[in-house]
Write a structure and sequence with these properties.
- The mean pLDDT is about 95.
- The protein has a twelve-stranded mixed sheet.
- The protein contains eleven helices and twelve strands.
- About 35% of the residues lie in helices and about 20% in strands.
- It is of the alpha/beta class.
- It folds into two domains: about 180 residues, Isopropylmalate Dehydrogenase; about 120 residues, Isopropylmalate Dehydrogenase (3-Layer(aba) Sandwich).
- The longest helix is centred in the first third of the chain and has 19 residues.
């Protein structure tokens, strides 16, 4: 069976969040159009399930319910209330998903949202988030988080750190690695020499040093070196003019300097449909661009749009 024919592996994420609900809703809307299987406790899914013993059974099982490669997570799920006893199993589901993809049993990995504090409190999870843990499991040093929707792709050069720490973290070496990984990933998806727009860190991209010198001392030298290698780079650009419809037509992906500079525009443009993609891994990984939403867990109100988009993007990328 070719990779394009394999099902997508989906780790269940935090059972107390909206993951079990949006998984069931995604199955209801997708049916057999896009076979996937869940790694988690079948008792936690909010809908019909079909337990399977191997990923290859997902294509048959998906016609009757959510295919679940089931694990015993222990205590029953309590929506909105994370339990310490579940934490190690949530982590193991992610680890098993990575193993199945790398072993060629699944086409790609999609991950439902986790709650990092719950994992730290319950199982000593020491990673800042999914992205860093996946890099550890894959044995790679550098990965990049890309958020994508049909109208925009953005990459934050720094992610889950305080804003005050961004200038020090934004070294020439780090920014170079981020741009190189992004460039290579888009090339692998058929973009040829992708057009990359790079934001400045400061208002007005520093205004020639009048509002900060990071552009002059870090960003401009990096872009100059990479342009000399043939990369199609624009910038550093003022972030406040990069994301309107006309500007977006001029590039394939935008590199932003910090978390909110990247996530505010994409969540404004397509709040429900954004997808988190990890670039630089030796396999395809996507996830919905939202959290566990404990406040609405169990109420039947969760929107599966982002999860469906993440599964579809995983399928498109896993060719």
């Amino acid at each position: 069976m070719s990779r394009a024919d394999l099902p997508i592996a989906l780790s269940i994420g935090e059972p107390a969040g909206i993951g079990p609900e949006i998984i069931a809703k995604a199955w209801e809307r997708l049916g057999a159009e896009l076979p996937f299987f869940v790694i988690g406790d079948a008792r936690h899914i909010d809908g019909p399930v079909e337990t399977i013993s191997h990923p290859s059974e997902a294509h048959r099982a998906v016609h009757r319910g959510v295919p679940v490669l089931t694990r015993d997570f222990g205590p029953p799920r309590r929506p909105g209330e994370a339990q310490a006893a579940h934490a190690a199993h949530v982590i193991a589901a992610i680890r098993d998903g990575v193993a199945l993809v790398m072993q060629g049993e699944a086409a790609a990995l999609t991950t439902a949202p986790i709650h990092k504090k719950a994992l730290k409190d319950g199982a000593g999870f020491s990673f800042p988030g999914h992205t860093e843990y996946l890099a550890h499991l894959a044995g790679v040093d550098d990965v990049v988080m890309m958020l994508a929707c049909p109208d925009l792709r953005v990459v934050p050069a720094t992610i889950h750190i305080p804003l005050a720490d961004v200038p020090a973290a934004l070294t020439r070496d780090h920014l170079t690695r981020v741009i190189r990984i992004t460039h290579a990933a888009l090339q692998s998806q058929g973009y040829g020499n992708p057009r990359i727009a790079v934001a400045g860190l400061n208002p007005h991209a520093g205004e020639g040093g009048a509002i900060g010198r990071e552009e002059i001392e870090t960003i401009i030298p990096v872009l100059g070196d990479l342009r000399a290698e043939g990369l199609a780079l624009a910038g550093p650009l003022p972030a406040d003019t990069m994301f309107h419809a006309g500007a977006r037509k001029g590039y394939d992906v935008a590199i932003c300097m910090y978390h909110d500079q990247a996530l505010v525009p994409i969540k404004t443009i397509d709040f429900a449909g954004g997808v988190n993609v990890t670039l630089g891994l030796p396999f395809v990984r996507t996830s919905p661009d939202h959290g566990t939403a404990f406040d609405i867990a169990g109420l039947g109100r969760a929107d599966p749009t982002s999860l469906i988009a993440a599964l579809r993007m995983a399928r498109e990328m896993a060719v």
